[in-house]
Amino acid sequence: MFDDLIRGVRAHGSLFGSSVLTPPWALHFVDGAPLTLCTVLGGGGWIVRENHPPEPLRAGDTVVVRGPETFTFVDEVGTRAEPVACGEFCATPEQGGTRHRLGWHDTAGDGPGATTLIVGAYPVRGEVSRLLLDALPAVLRVPGGGTGDAVLDHLAAEVALDTPGQQVVLDRLLDWMLVCTLREWFDRPGGEAPAWWAAQRDPVVGEALRLLHTEPAAPWTVAALAARCGVSRATLAKRFTDLVGEPPLTYLTRWRMTLAADLLAGRHTATLAEVARTVGYSDAFGFSAAFKRVRGVTPSAFRRSAVG
């Protein structure tokens, strides 16, 4: 399930930057991107948001900030530096985006006290990936020393180069860093990960979730799903509800409607009947009734609002 949710969240060169900062400095990230990942390769600073306590960010740490709220990265709380506005439009258009060597606040070097910051702003495409946003706090911070350290080593080596294809490599490394950060945050001791995160690791419920996600249009019943998972109907129903928080078929309906919402928004020429069949409904009427019950609007109204 996590794979489905993260699939639509990808870095792109026009939303990527790297800076070597010498105090005092203040970078104000003004775009309010759905997700912004900040990783410190060296040095440190503070994430400051309006009406929230400052969040420290030290060498090796990674912070993910959920939009649309903007934030500032500063050398110290109360810095005397004038904020430099940073975002998509700080890119260099003739190069198709912000290259790391043309970062938002270049300096002459990386002398004493300098901080090297890697930033990726992530658009979030579609309703499926929005389920991931719903599971995240406004700010999550993962300290260095975990699974992301290997990615940091690769990032540090790559930003020191200037070679063909580098932007693609940096983007994919940033995606790797985001996945490692989210997994580590969900797995942290005493954390409050969404129910589906832990449920994926249950041998029975995890298999049921995998089947529902890979075969959403199949004519599922609880009995059929239980048979595929190798347990009784009663065992699956109880175990699934206990771990996920709702019965299997209720979950399936919500998942189908999430997929349908992306199809309605992304495939403008698809008829309602075609969308209905894709997500497991034999006719448009039954699909429309289910969609309105789950999403609160008819499929046609949702499509108009999505493409308008």
Automatic annotation (TrEMBL):
UniProt KW keywords: DNA-binding, Transcription, Transcription regulation
GO molecular function term, any single one: sequence-specific DNA binding
Database matches in Pfam families: Cupin_6, HTH_18
Domain HTH araC/xylS-type: 206-305
Gene3D superfamilies the record matches: Homeodomain-like
Record SMART domains: HTH_ARAC
Signal sequence residues: none
Name recorded for this polypeptide: AraC-type DNA-binding protein
Organism: Amycolatopsis sacchari
Lineage: Bacteria, Bacillati, Actinomycetota, Actinomycetes, Pseudonocardiales
